[in-house]
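Backbone-to-sequence.
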């Protein structure tokens, strides 16, 4: 299978996007050894047995605050809506689907225009737990949904999001776990004809967080923006592996993830895979990852992949960079009388602001920035 760029030439830094096995049965997925492409950056020993599907002995409580007209249901495991968007691509996602006992479903009716966000709060109370959330936005509706993780747990979860034809959804997921939490999550987005998805993934807490967002288009004219912010502190492992699949024509995708790393053994991983199928003419896609390393001892891995099977695209590209503070910005701020430590804080805030300022929930923006400030502590000169 050939890999080409928009001009028909093989790109120097791109590779074929891996095709995982997709099945609800955990036994259909091999136990990873760590040598597989999908698992080579993940510290398997720190997953606390989630690859083998341990029995649930803990709890993650779920509460939903929703405006009038939004339906909130608890679905049985056999409900046909489960698995309509997400077919598990690894053992953990398959165990989450098999052992969650059903799903929480949030449905925004067709043509509704919500003025207040739907907030789904998940709070870990310790132990091993599994979860499944389904969000469906009806045709020509518009909504904002916030998924907020707090507390402590060893948690495997699946999230299915369907944006109906002509609908618009802003979806914010916040991983603000306690320091000892482990969370592996599969997030699947389905974008309908002429629909718009704006997602924001904010990862701050937890000992280990690994999220796998995927986007599929269900008709032409779909528009998906995937934004991410992560702050990886000492000893934390944060991994975001994205796959955007363009099959219908005339769809657009933009990916922008920014991360900062601080402290010994802080490890951030970003994988951005984009597949443009043979029939996906007039596709417009671009992905960007930037990592700011604040101290020695931190490591960032960034791997963009682009596979194009048609030469008739509007645009397709990617960019990735990892570096330290912008010396020119620091010099500019300090030349105007700002102390060095405060100047470094302002640079970090400005680095994140491009993404965070796009979130249309003011109290959430403030909470994220406050949390980032609290994690900065004293930055070295």
């Amino acid at each position: 299978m050939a890999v080409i760029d928009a001009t028909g030439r093989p790109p120097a830094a791109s590779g074929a996007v891996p095709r995982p096995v997709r099945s609800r049965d955990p036994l259909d997925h091999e136990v990873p050894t760590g040598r597989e492409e999908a698992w080579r950056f993940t510290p398997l020993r720190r997953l606390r047995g989630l690859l083998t599907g341990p029995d649930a002995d803990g709890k993650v409580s779920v509460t939903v605050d929703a405006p009038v007209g939004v339906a909130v249901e608890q679905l049985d495991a056999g409900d046909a809506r489960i698995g309509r968007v997400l077919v598990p691509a690894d053992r953990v996602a398959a165990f989450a689907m098999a052992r969650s006992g059903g799903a929480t479903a949030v449905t925004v009716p067709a043509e509704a225009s919500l003025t207040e966000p739907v907030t789904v709060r998940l709070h870990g109370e310790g132990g091993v737990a599994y979860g499944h959330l389904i969000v469906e936005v009806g045709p020509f509706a518009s909504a904002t949904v916030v998924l907020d993780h707090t507390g402590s747990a060893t948690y495997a979860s699946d999230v299915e999001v369907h944006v109906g034809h002509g609908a618009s959804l802003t979806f914010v997921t916040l991983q603000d776990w306690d320091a000892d939490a482990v969370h592996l999550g599969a997030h699947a987005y389905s974008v309908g004809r002429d629909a718009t998805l704006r997602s924001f993934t904010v990862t701050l807490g937890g000992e280990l967080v690994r999220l796998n967002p995927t986007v599929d288009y269900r008709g032409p004219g779909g528009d998906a923006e995937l934004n991410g912010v992560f702050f990886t502190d000492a000893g934390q492992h944060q991994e975001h592996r994205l796959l955007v699949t363009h099959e219908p024509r005339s769809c657009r995708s933009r990916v922008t993830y920014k991360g900062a790393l601080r402290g010994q053994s802080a490890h951030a991983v970003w994988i951005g895979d984009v597949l443009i199928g043979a029939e996906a003419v007039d596709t417009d896609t671009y992905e960007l990852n930037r990592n700011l390393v604040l101290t020695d001892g931190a490591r960032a891995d960034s791997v963009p992949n682009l596979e194009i099977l048609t030469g008739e695209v509007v645009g397709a590209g990617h960019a990735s960079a990892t570096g330290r503070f912008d010396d020119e910005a620091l010099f500019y701020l300090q030349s105007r009388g700002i102390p060095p430590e405060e100047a470094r804080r302002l640079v970090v805030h400005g680095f994140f602001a491009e993404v965070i300022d796009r979130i249309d929930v003011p109290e959430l923006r403030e909470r994220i920035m406050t949390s980032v400030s609290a994690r900065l502590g004293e930055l070295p000169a």
